[in-house]
Amino acid sequence: MLDPEALYTTNADQWDVVAGHAPVMLHLLQGYVDAGGVSRNLAEHLLMQCPHEVVAEFDCDQLHDYRSRRPPMTFDVNTWVEVEMPRLVLHRMTDDAGRDFLLLEGPEPDSQWERACTAILDLAGRLGVTQFVTATGTPFGVPHTRPVLVTAHATSPELVGENPMPFERVQVPGSFSTLLEYRAGQRGLLGRGFVTYVPHYLAQGAFTPATVTALDRVMDAAGLVLPRDPLAGTVQATLDALENEMAGDEDLPALIATLEAQYDDLARQGQRSVPSADEIGAAAERFLAERDDEGEGS
What are phi and psi of 19, to 5 degrees? Predict the structure, then answer.
């Protein structure tokens, strides 16, 4: 393996501020399945609302597949005026209680996963990180008119609490964040994460209720006091807009009524956690196929 430390550069001033203070690291990366934009929107919210400085930045030229995920460029009249290059950055953040924590955000690496994981874990070890926390969204047949369902996972299963699952073992396509959590566990480090279930008919857009639910779970797990507004203030507006859309759609109300009946039936049986492994896999495959189709048409 090439030297993992050569993947990133650090900001010495910020390093000295955070090192040795047992920070929590949130990792909210874009890529794979992020239905409702949960990871992306949560990272953007925190960057907008919390003071932050760059601690380290990774070399995306070594990790990013530009032909698979092309950077957007802006053309104005007769010249190129702007480009948004991918950045994978570790920030020092400060919560509302004045406590520092770390946020790793940006695109999921397309290559060199093992080397990148080693780099992040080595860097975290030097900084004295105490735990890793993540959150994402997955598409599923649940209605937007009911509370958001969440599945928790952790390198120490006793931290999950009551989290009944309809299956004991399942194999799914991996993501960089889940590999990072797995490798952290192999080092004896604490990793925790939360999967929020987003209505499949809303998976392509931003579903704020799932993002706020993820934010609350992250706060509780990490022991941080994170700002909820203005994000939380948009939840009701999102739900109201969906109700207006339903009023003008002939098919959506019937679909949602069916999903509500299924959801309520599970609730009566005390099984509100998640659906079956096959259903989750099928929903994820549909979401990815739809996203690929949209990309080909753009």
Answer: -60, 135
- Which amino acid is residue 48, in one-letter code? M
Q: How far apart are the first and last CA of the chain?
A: 37
Residue in the block written with tokens 């940006």: 106
Structure-block tokens of residue 151: 């599945």
Return d(Cα 271, Cα 263) in angstroms, integer: 9
| Tens-digit pLDDT profile for residues 142-187 | 999 999 989 899 998 888 876 545 456 778 889 999 999 999 999 9
CA 15 from centre of chain? 25
Predicted TM-score (pTM) of this structure: 0.87
Tens of pLDDT, residue by residue over 196-222, are 999 999 999 999 999 999 999 999 999
Residue 229 buriedness (CB in 10 A; 0-12 / 13-18 / 19+): exposed
Beta carbons within 10 angstroms of residue 209's beta carbon: 23
Amino acid at 257: A
**Structure-token match 């520092």, residue found:** 100
Q: Return the pLDDT at 289.
A: 64
Distance from C-alpha of 200 to C-alpha of 198, rounded to nearest angstrom: 6
Closest to 176 measured CA to CA, from 28, 67, 26, 5: 28
Q: Is 196 helix (H, G, I), strand (E, B) or coil?
A: strand
Alpha carbons 170 and 163: distance in angstroms, whole number: 16
Task: Say how far apart CA 140 and CA 148 lie, in whole Å.
Answer: 11
